[in-house]
């Protein structure tokens, strides 16, 4: 499905869960926060929340170490 | 060597954060803080505590809801213009400190007008004028004239300059200045003394009282902040909150903004003694949104694009963009060395496109100046 990730178009090939998407992007889940269409998706829902074609996803990855 | 400036200070009682630092907080305290409708020091202390690091998502959700309630889906934009890099100050963390071997510049009035025209042509309605410490090349008369030039072109003219007397602030307000930004850098007296190695900035209490003098002198907005990385962030953020609440109570008709500058590299190589990572910075921003729901929170181009994009609308409601930290740089005049490195170097259009893609509306002015 086609998603917009941090403003850029992205073709997602996994099962459409947030956790699958983070894996595909190579993002570290412990250091990430995710919004879908501007709503925060809590990490406890990342396995079950289903993304839809056309969703705008923001993946905010926090860089550690100051 | 004797210094003419007082170097040791004790925080006044109304500012001292220590009573809240002595408590430890549990997950239950954090949950309670997240639900409160009447936040106070206790709320902030809980939300800044290590226990709250596990609650970043609910904090983000609450911060986003409050940001939408108070600011809609808008992000106010501004841009800084450095007028002068002359400085007698000795701030250990600053690229303009007087022991740095960088060439010094000050814009003449013709260059100021040209730079402002270039900024205006980009679409901005708010400009922030900056200098270092008071010096012959950049004194109150110079600033007054620069403010006058800026006020003819911009709706909001903010100044981030040396602390002044109330009468001097009045002169700038009459020339058209609307806001003053005065970061305390750190509220921790011993650290403050250590970081400000020489110069008038050694006088901590003089700086602390400057925003109040500015508001008494007729400025309408005061911007506060502490430079994250200098001292224990919990100490500094609690004191910053108390400072803001104190000004809100005393100058209820004035507006406040709060910024979250984090130490970045600059010429002279300074390492932050208390580095703050992005996760902690996000926690701090969410905590302030929850505790000061209607105060604009500012994030500058010191931070990288990805972090700024994430925080826009999630707590942050005001941002700079397309910034130069060199003297001038928008028109044809420009120096080489900046005060600090810009991390988000995008242009205005690219940035506005990003905001719109997130359903956020860039706003260039938030009020009309009907008299000044
Ligand atoms: S922070 Fe300001 S006062 Fe201190 S050295 Fe830099 S320009 Fe000068």
Automatic annotation (TrEMBL), chain A:
Instruction: Extract the PANTHER family matched here.
Output: SULFUR CARRIER PROTEIN THIS (PTHR34472)
Q: Where are the transmembrane segments?
A: none
- Alphabetical list of Pfam families matching this protein: ThiS
- Protein's recorded name: Sulfur carrier protein ThiS
InterPro entries assigned to the protein according to its UniProt record, in alphabetical order: Beta-grasp_dom_sf, Mopterin_synth/thiamin_S_b, Thi_S, ThiS/MoaD-like
Q: Which organism is it from?
A: Tichowtungia aerotolerans
């Amino acid at each position: 499905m086609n998603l917009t990730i941090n403003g850029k178009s992205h073709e997602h090939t996994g099962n459409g869960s947030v956790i699958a998407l983070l894996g595909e992007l190579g993002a570290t889940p412990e250091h990430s926060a995710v919004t879908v269409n501007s709503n925060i998706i809590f990490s406890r829902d990342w396995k079950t929340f289903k993304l839809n074609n056309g969703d705008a996803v923001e993946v905010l990855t926090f860089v550690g170490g100051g | 060597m004797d210094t003419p400036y007082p170097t040791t200070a004790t925080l006044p009682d109304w500012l001292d954060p220590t009573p809240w630092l002595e408590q430890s907080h549990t997950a239950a305290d954090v949950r309670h803080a997240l639900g409160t409708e009447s936040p106070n020091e206790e709320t902030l202390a809980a939300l800044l505590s290590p226990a709250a690091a596990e609650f970043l998502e609910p904090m983000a959700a609450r911060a986003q809801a409050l940001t939408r309630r108070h600011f809609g889906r808008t992000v106010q934009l501004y841009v800084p213009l450095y007028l002068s890099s002359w400085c007698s100050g000795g701030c250990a963390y600053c690229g303009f400190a007087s022991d740095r071997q960088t060439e010094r510049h000050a814009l003449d009035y013709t260059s100021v007008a040209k730079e402002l025209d270039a900024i205006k042509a980009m679409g901005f309605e708010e400009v922030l004028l900056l200098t270092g410490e008071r010096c012959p090349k950049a004194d109150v008369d110079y600033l007054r004239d620069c403010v006058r030039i800026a006020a003819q072109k911009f709706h909001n003219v903010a100044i981030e300059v040396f602390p002044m007397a109330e009468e001097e602030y009045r002169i700038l307000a009459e020339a058209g200045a609307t806001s003053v930004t005065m970061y305390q850098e750190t509220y921790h007296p011993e650290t403050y003394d250590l970081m400000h190695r020489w110069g008038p900035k050694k006088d901590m209490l003089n700086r602390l009282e400057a925003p109040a003098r500015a508001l008494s002198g007729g400025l309408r907005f005061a911007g506060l902040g502490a430079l994250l990385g200098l001292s224990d962030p919990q100490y500094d953020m609690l004191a910053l909150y108390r400072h803001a609440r104190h000004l809100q109570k005393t100058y209820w008709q004035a507006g406040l903004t709060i910024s979250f500058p984090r130490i970045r590299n600059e010429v002279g190589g300074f390492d932050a003694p208390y580095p703050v990572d992005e996760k902690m910075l996000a926690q701090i921003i969410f905590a302030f949104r929850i505790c000061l729901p209607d105060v604009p929170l500012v994030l500058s181009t010191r931070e990288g694009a990805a972090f700024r994009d994430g925080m826009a609308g999630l707590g942050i409601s005001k941002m700079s963009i397309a910034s130069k930290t060199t003297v001038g740089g928008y028109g044809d005049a420009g120096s080489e060395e900046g005060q600090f490195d810009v991390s988000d170097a995008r242009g205005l259009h690219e940035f506005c496109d990003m905001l719109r893609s997130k359903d956020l509306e860039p706003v260039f002015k938030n009020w009309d100046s009907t008299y000044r």
